[in-house]
Write a structure and sequence with these properties.
The structure is a single chain. This protein is of the alpha/beta class. The protein contains 8 helices and 6 strands. The protein has one domain (2-150): Rossmann fold (3-Layer(aba) Sandwich). Helices cover 38% and strands 18% of the residues. The chain has a 6-stranded parallel beta sheet with strand order 3-2-1-4-5-6. Strand 2 (33-38), helix 2 (52-63) and strand 3 form a beta-alpha-beta unit. The protein is globular and about 45 Å long. The mean pLDDT is 94. The structure holds adenosine-5'-triphosphate. Residues 7, 9-12, 17-18, 21, 104-105, 107-108, 130, 132, 151, 153-156 line the site of adenosine-5'-triphosphate. This is Probable nicotinate-nucleotide adenylyltransferase. It catalyses: nicotinate beta-D-ribonucleotide + ATP + H(+) = deamido-NAD(+) + diphosphate.
Length: 189
């Protein structure tokens, strides 16, 4: 049985917080791989700032150095809103020999009751939660907790820094920083 972690997100842009939680959960839960899965239009968030193609490219650059990390483009290719339930149902059909672990930061936990078919989704995946600065990891649903070093880094903060022409060095992998500069992403609010 293959054990696959899924890290869904906007990755607008991807940062070292994403990489660290993926690696910590991978090791703690003995996962074979972690798939970074950018969403096209996040159901519970406002529109992304960078194009889906740029977010995919940045995710690929961010994950390039880890042989266990892959970028899965199913949700960006599907266009419009994607629901985790639909995606995970498909993954389970396509990979009957795999079990899936869906990684979420504590800020996402409060939205779980609003997720499409959450009860059925709980049958399809094991949720693995990690703490996040300012949020509690408490939920009415069973969530496996993996302890990680707290990192108060968010894509929102990175975008604000870029708009203010402040440094983002060490907050994103160097390859991502170079891409952002080359493509002049996030220069205005
Ligand atoms: P934004 O600031 O634009 O809302 P974000 O930094 O939360 O973005 P997402 O791409 O939305 O990044 O996050 C994908 C997943 O990673 C979510 O489950 C989120 O909770 C988790 N996550 C992101 N950053 C961190 C962090 N620093 N610590 C723990 N979890 C994180």
């Amino acid at each position: 049985m293959k054990r696959i972690g899924i890290l869904g997100g906007t990755f607008d842009p991807p940062h070292i917080g994403h990489l660290l939680i993926a690696e910590e959960v991978r090791v703690a839960q003995n996962l074979d791989d972690v798939w970074f899965m950018p969403s096209h239009e996040p159901p519970h968030k406002q529109k992304a700032n960078a194009d889906a193609s740029d977010r995919v490219e940045m995710a690929k650059r961010a994950t390039a150095g880890n042989p266990h990390f892959k970028v899965n483009t199913i949700e960006v290719n599907r266009l419009g809103k994607s629901y985790t339930f639909d995606t995970m149902k498909l993954f389970n059909q396509e990979h009957p020999d795999a079990s899936f672990y869906f990684i979420i930061g504590a800020d996402m936990v409060e939205y779980l009751p609003n997720w499409k078919h959450i009860e059925e989704l709980l049958e399809l995946v094991t949720f693995v939660g990690v703490k996040r600065e300012g949020y509690k990891l408490a939920s009415e649903y069973p969530i496996r907790e993996v302890d990680i070093p707290l990192m108060d880094i968010s894509s929102t903060d990175i975008r604000t820094r870029l708009a203010d022409k402040r440094s983002i060095k060490y907050m994103v992998p160097e390859k991502v920083e170079i891409y952002i500069k080359e493509k002049r992403l996030y220069e205005s609010r």
